[in-house]
Amino acid sequence: MLPIILLLSVVFSCRSAQELRKSAVDEVIAEATILRASGEYSGVAALYESAASEYGEDARVWYNLAVAYAEVGNLGKSLETFGILNELTGRTNTKYLQAESSLAYEMGLVDHAVELWTEVVALDPMESEVRFKLIEVLSESGRYEQAYAQAMELYKAGGFGKDLFNDLATLERETGRGDGTSWNILASTYE
C-alpha cells in the first residue's frame, strides 16, 4: 500500500509542478501584454529572455520571445529563436514552422523559407496557402520542376481549383511536359 501512496504523491506533485509552471508562464504573458500595449518592446523581449531561462520547456515562451525580437527589429535573433522553438517542438507544429518560414522569406533567405514550407506541406498536405506560396517562390526562382511537383502533390491531395489548374498549365509549359491545354480547360470550368 505504501508504494502506491508514494507513486500517487509523485504523480500529483509532478502534475502540480506542471500546473505551477504553466501558471507562471501565463503571468509572464499577461505582463508582456501590458508592456507591449504601452509600446515597451525592449521590456517585452527582456521579460521573455528571463522566462526562457526559467521556463525553457514551454513553447509559448520561445514563440513570444521570437515575436518580441522581431518587434524590436532584431530579425536575426528572432529567426534563431524560431529555430529553437521548432527544435523544441520536434518540428511538428505547422504554425511555428510557418512563422519561421515567413520571417526567413522576409529576410531574403529564400532557400531556408522553401525548406520550411516544404516541411509544412509534408505535415499538412492540404495546407494550400503555404503550398501556393511555395509554388510561387519556386517558379519565380526558376525551379519549375520542384514547383510542378508541389502543384501535382496538391492536385493529388484533392486541392482542385482554378488557381491550381492555371499554375499546372504554366508549369507544364515551363517544364516542357506539354502545352498546358488540358489544365487550362479544367481551369476554365471554374470561371
**N- to C-terminal separation?**
73 Å
CATH T-level fold name of the largest domain = Serine Threonine Protein Phosphatase 5, Tetratricopeptide repeat
Tally of DSSP helical segments:
10
Number of strands: 0
CATH architecture of the largest domain: Alpha Horseshoe
Task: Using the CA coordinates, give the radius of gyration.
Answer: 23 Å
Provide the CATH top-level class of the largest domain: Mainly Alpha
* Global shape: elongated
Residues in helices, as a percent range = over 70%
CATH superfamily of the largest domain: Tetratricopeptide repeat domain
| Largest sheet composition | none
Number of domains: 2
Determine the strand fraction and express it as a percent band.
under 5%
The SSE string, one letter per element, is HHHHHHHHHH
Give an overview of the whole structure.
79% of the residues lie in helices and 0% in strands. Helix 5 (94-106) packs antiparallel against helix 6, helix 7 packs antiparallel against helix 8 (144-156) and helix 8 (144-156) runs antiparallel to helix 9 (162-174). It starts with a helix and ends with a helix. With 191 residues, it is an all-alpha fold. The chain folds into 2 domains: 1-109, Serine Threonine Protein Phosphatase 5, Tetratricopeptide repeat; 125-191, Serine Threonine Protein Phosphatase 5, Tetratricopeptide repeat (Alpha Horseshoe), CATH 1.25.40. The mean pLDDT is 92. It has 10 helices and no strands. The chain is elongated and about 65 Å long. It has helices at 2-37, 41-54, 59-71, 75-88, 94-106, 110-123, 128-140, 144-156, 162-174, 181-188.
